[in-house]
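Usage

Read records sequentially. Each one opens with the input sequence:
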Amino acid sequence: MGFSRIAPNSIYLGWITGVSPSWTPPPSDWIKINCDAALNDSGSSIACVARNDKADIIRWEARRIDLCSPLVAKALAVDMAIKMAVQANWRYIFLVSDSKIVIEALQNRNSDSPWSISSILDNCMLNVCNFSAYSFVFTPRAAKLLAHNLAKWCLHSNTRSQVLLTLPTSLCSNTEEWIL
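and closes with the structure output:
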């Protein structure tokens, strides 16, 4: 099966030019998946939110994970997002994270990456072969607040895995960070 990777950071990076960061839709037929992690003294959680070119939320996932470093949690969030996309049989994805280390390590997989996330990133790269095209994109948290809010919400909920048909409306802001 053939696949291609589009140029890293080729679009949707208004923050580089001084424009305030905000969520922007992907091109037609593409899915944009924002992912994030949240941590506190008792644990960690990861979350991802997938949207189409009309900004419709088409799938999301959030789960608690064992306590780990922020870098490992961010890498696990990316891995969860890729697995979600493979399961949904999406062909074209933009995967967005606010972890510059994780995104740069995925963009330059032949270079050295932190040992703590190396096996997670290897797994990610094995799974992207399922896509026709993909791009790993770094963006500041402000451009993906829904995934951030979902990760924080999951961290503070009482269950290990979240499976709801709809997202709580209090989390659905793209412009306001959820405060506990």
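Summary fields computed downstream for this record:
- The helical segments are 70-88, 100-107, 115-127, 145-155.
- The CA atoms of residues 13 and 19 lie 9 Å apart.
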